[in-house]
């Protein structure tokens, strides 16, 4: 029986997703309303197979949460459920490892279909997006996704902190390690990403994982 987690900060929408999943999954469905809560939950609930992830929720910035899940919990399937229907964002989400992308405007039967397809081992997009740019390969994102996969979980955390503008000393305090350890991680990150300095690494990370339209579209929910 598959155990799933709904990660969304809108209670009414979580309730709707609960209804849909209860009719699709035989397993337990848990709920969280922030990305830090999701990470904490996944650290303890090791049998979770599926996460329904909102792109715009506390602690999540665009596609950063998706890439963090793929890095920290690579065996968990991630279905993006978002109000953002930008073809570019959808292409990037799929390139960075999402198993499906479900617009929040979709009827619940469509969500059920997506979950069923994903649990059967396939990727899923709404029919109206399958013959659009959203379904075309995104070589640049796929290349960056491959580079991110080469990072250890700790290196990924360091890169996220760099993108947030933190200095090595601040990152060391944040991760409770020595500053020399952070410097070693930074050197490895630069090498694996093929960039020359930490500023470039942070800029590329933020640029590749952006989803600017999210705030505007989510506000319409």
Automatic annotation (TrEMBL):
Modified residues (4-aspartylphosphate): 54
Response regulatory domain location: 3-119
SUPFAM superfamilies, per the entry: C-terminal effector domain of the bipartite response regulators, CheY-like
Molecular function terms from GO: DNA binding
Keywords (A to Z) from UniProt: DNA-binding, Phosphoprotein
InterPro entries found in the cross-reference section: CheY-like_superfamily, EvgA-like, NreC/VraR/RcsB-like_REC, Sig_transdc_resp-reg_C-effctor, Sig_transdc_resp-reg_receiver, Tscrpt_reg_LuxR_C
KW Phosphoprotein (keyword) present: yes
Keyword Ribonucleoprotein applies: no
PROSITE patterns, per database record: HTH_LUXR_1 (PS00622), HTH_LUXR_2 (PS50043), RESPONSE_REGULATORY (PS50110)
Protein name per its UniProtKB record: DNA-binding response regulator
